[in-house]
Amino acid sequence: MNGQLRKDVVPGRKVRIVQKQDQRTGKLTDGVVKDILTNSPSHPHGIKVRLTDGIVGRVKEIIAE
User: Fold this and answer.
1) What is the pLDDT of residues 6-53, one digit of tens each?
2) What residue ranges do the domains of the chain occupy?
3) N-to-C CA span, the chain
4) C-alpha pair distances (Å), 24 with each of 3, 19, 50, 52
5) If you count DSSP H runs as helices and E runs as strands, how many of each does the chain have, helices first?
6) DSSP symbol at 28
7) Which architecture does CATH list for 6-62?
8) Residues 6+ apart with CB under 8 A from 1
9) Across the strands, what pairs with 15?
10) What's the whole-model pTM score?
């Protein structure tokens, strides 16, 4: 599942994000959503979130549990 829809991204869910500095390389970071920073219902590059460890990035993949 991709992270373009805000309704799919909820706090506590495991996701893979791309940080701003990793956008060129596409390096993904795994973590758990703490806060949702995007207000719109969808975003073509992924919903922006803050992970529990403080890292901010756009959701590229939602990890199924």
Assistant:
1) 999 999 999 999 999 999 999 999 999 999 999 999 999 999 999 999
2) 6-62
3) 12
4) 18, 10, 20, 24
5) 0, 4
6) E
7) Roll (2.30)
8) 8, 61, 62, 64
9) 31, 62
10) 0.92
